[in-house]
Amino acid sequence: MPHPYIPNSAPEVRAEMLRIIGAKSIDDLYTTVPKELRYNDRLPLEEGIPEEGRLRRHVTGILNKNTPATEMLSFLGAGCYQHEVPAVCDEINRRGEFVTSYAGDTYGDHGRLQALWEFQDLMAELVELDVVTTPNYDWSTAAAMALRSSVMLTGRKRVLVPAALLLDRRLVFADYLSHDVQVDEIPFNEETGLLDLDALRAALADDVAAVYIEYPNALGVVDFQAPEVVELAHEHGALAVVGADPTGLGLLAAPGSFGADFAVGDVQPLGMHMSYGGGLSGYLAFHNDPAVIESCPAFIFAKTETLEPGQNGFGYLNFDRTHYVKRGEGSQNGGTTTALWAITAAAYLGLLGPQGLRELGEGLMQRSRYAAERLGEIPGVTGPRFSGPILKEFVITYDNHEVAAVDDALRARGIFGGKDLSVDFPTLGRSSLWAVTEVHTKDDIDRLVEVLTEVLA
């Protein structure tokens, strides 16, 4: 029988869809999944809860099993960060005209299109590039899209990326590129954490479509060699993709200022709460080149004059390249939530302004440097692991303790410790990545040092 909440569940509709795609049954769609990984029984789901009050208590009970960072002293980062969220960001984020106008088209636009355009305008100024798309899922997706566009624009089938990448970024790159593009990793200097430029020079050739570099990188090191990396890429006819944390761009050079062809990153630090790892939203920026614009299957909003003097209209640019038009043939997907995060980021950037962003960057550097040096004073700890400059993250290494055991002991004392790097970077040994932001006070850092000293004793 058709399910009232599941579209296309009527038997005749399902049979027709299978016939069109050439499949005999639903099981044919899962033949690429190994049999041992398939669950062939009925899911042990509980009976539905029809009463609203009882359902609310049930869901609240599930959520209460989580321990949020707001109830602990947290130093977790690695792509999702606990920054201060001004109250105005939440207020704007929850406004009905932004939350409920799904696509912001003429039938439902109450300022949403202009708000998204304002985001693009603010981000373009921040990264010093001409065009910014509405955000996609996260930093990794934005970077993969930029690399894929580089392959299309150059006709080449090889890209160079840093070895200083977290595992999730590597996996997204593999998903977007590995079926027809060769992805080569460039090692980092074991002492500084910076990209090995000699290795980059040796790897560069006329078949390279793009070189990707991040600052800060996955080890927290601000790779000040980024301008030289861009120059080296251009010397070989390759494009340069620069990943940049926007919280540092009030202080650090903007990617566009030193010649980047693409700038990517995540706007989650710009006014978004952490939410089970969510709140992520990847920005993508590039030059105002028709060929580049056409290579990116992402939403772009443009401003134009109207028949009414002094009034502007806002609408889609490059719409026929998006999955909304291409549907099943689309090469990229986007989400309504990421557009809502864009509006939130616009509010945050407008609130802080250039001076506020500069002060934010300075505060991050000061706090993280203080924390890294204090932790490095603890017996049995090497910190920071790398000598390169840091913005808000750094790596420390334990001489005789496993990271997981230390994190468990810290959690029992009300502290979320750093991210265990044993999976992402097994060659670094007992190392963890720590994040320090403007939410951390000197007292917080001193408390951490005191507790960690006790744990390691």
- Overall pLDDT: 91
What is the CA-based Rg, rounded?
Answer: 24 Å
In percent, how helical is the residue content? 25-40%
* Weakly predicted, low-confidence segments: none
Q: N- to C-terminal separation?
A: 64 Å
Element-by-element helix/strand order: HHEHHHEHEHEHEHEEEHEEHHEEHEEEH
CATH H level, superfamily name of the largest domain? Type I PLP-dependent aspartate aminotransferase-like (Major domain)
Oligomeric state as shown: single chain
Number of helices: 14
What is the secondary structure topology, with strand pairs?
Elements: H1 11-21, H2 52-63, E1 73-74, H3 87-93, H4 96-99, H5 112-127, E2 131-132, H6 139-154, E3 158-162, H7 167-177, E4 182-186, H8 197-203, E5 208-215, H9 226-235, E6 239-244, E7 262-266, E8 282-286, H10 290-295, E9 300-305, E10 312-317, H11 323-326, H12 336-376, E11 381-382, E12 393-398, H13 403-412, E13 415-416, E14 419-420, E15 431-435, H14 442-456
Parallel strand pairs: 1-13, 3-4, 3-5, 5-6, 6-7
Antiparallel strand pairs: 2-8, 7-8, 9-10, 11-12, 12-15, 14-15
Helix pairs in contact: 3-12, 5-12, 6-7, 12-14
Describe what this molecule looks like in 3D.
- By secondary structure, the chain is an alpha/beta fold.
- It folds into three domains: 1-41, no CATH class; 69-84 and 354-456, Aspartate Aminotransferase, domain 1 (Alpha-Beta Complex), CATH 3.90.1150; 87-349, Aspartate Aminotransferase, domain 2 (3-Layer(aba) Sandwich), CATH 3.40.640.
- The protein contains 14 helices and 15 strands.
- It has a seven-stranded mixed β-sheet with strand order 2-8-7-6-5-3-4, sandwiched between helices. The protein has a four-stranded antiparallel β-sheet with strand order 11-12-15-14.
- The chain is globular and about 70 Å long.
